[in-house]
């Protein structure tokens, strides 16, 4: 009898396509560690990096059901303050299939507030 194999959602490719459609030059920045069989995100939370004049966007991409956990991981990262201080915007893209079509259903954004030097979270 065959085994049911669940294919991994193509969230990285979906985010890459979306950023490029929005005018970003974008690349995947997570890397595969052979032997350890793990993926390592840039700064522990960046899967895709997008740039356009005056803007750098770091994206953690995942399924919609895991988006809140990824946001928590970013908030706990020792690298978060320096990435925000560098002026980068950080987003979490949570994808799910809705009516047989991949849809970005959860979206969180963190960016440095210029006025009060804090960070903000939008959902």
Q: Would you write up a description of this structure?
A:
With 123 residues, the chain is α+β, with helices and mostly antiparallel strands. The chain has one domain: Trna Endonuclease, Chain: A, domain 1. The protein has helices at residues 11-21, 67-75, 80-85, and strands spanning 25-28, 31-33, 38-40, 48-52, 55-63, 89-98, 101-112, 119-122. Strands 1-4-5-6-7-8 form a 6-stranded mixed sheet, with helices on both faces. A two-stranded antiparallel ribbon has the order 2-3. A hairpin with a 6-residue loop joins strand 7 and strand 8. The protein starts with 10 loop residues before the first helix and ends with a strand.
Keywords:
disordered N terminus, 123 residues, disordered C terminus, 3 helices, Trna Endonuclease, Chain: A, domain 1, globular, 41% strand, alpha+beta, two-stranded antiparallel sheet, 6-stranded mixed sheet
* Shape annotation: globular
How many separate helices?
3
Helix content: 10-25%
What sequence of helices (H) and strands (E) makes up the elements?
A: HEEEEEHHEEE
Unreliable residue stretches: 1-7, 114-123
Overall mean pLDDT score?
85
CA radius of gyration is: 15 Å
Q: How much β-strand is present in the residues?
A: 35-45%
- Can you tell me the CATH class? Alpha Beta
Distance between the termini: 45 Å
Number of domains: 1
- Per the CATH scheme, the topology name is Trna Endonuclease, Chain: A, domain 1
Total number of β-strand segments? 8
Give the structural class: alpha+beta
Strand arrangement across the biggest beta sheet: 1-4-5-6-7-8
CATH architecture annotation name: 3-Layer(aba) Sandwich
* Biggest pleated sheet: 6 strands, mixed
């Amino acid at each position: 009898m065959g085994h049911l194999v669940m294919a991994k959602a193509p969230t990285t490719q979906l985010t890459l396509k979306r950023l490029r459609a929005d005018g970003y030059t974008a690349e995947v920045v997570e890397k595969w560690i052979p032997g350890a069989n793990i993926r390592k995100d840039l700064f522990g939370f960046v899967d895709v990096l997008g740039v356009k004049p005056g803007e750098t966007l770091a994206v953690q991409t995942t399924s919609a059901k895991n988006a809140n956990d990824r946001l928590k991981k970013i908030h706990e990262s020792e690298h978060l303050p320096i990435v925000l201080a560098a002026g980068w915007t950080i987003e979490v893209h949570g994808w799910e299939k809705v009516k047989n079509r991949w849809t970005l259903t959860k979206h969180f954004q963190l960016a440095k507030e210029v006025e009060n030097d804090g960070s903000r979270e939008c959902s």
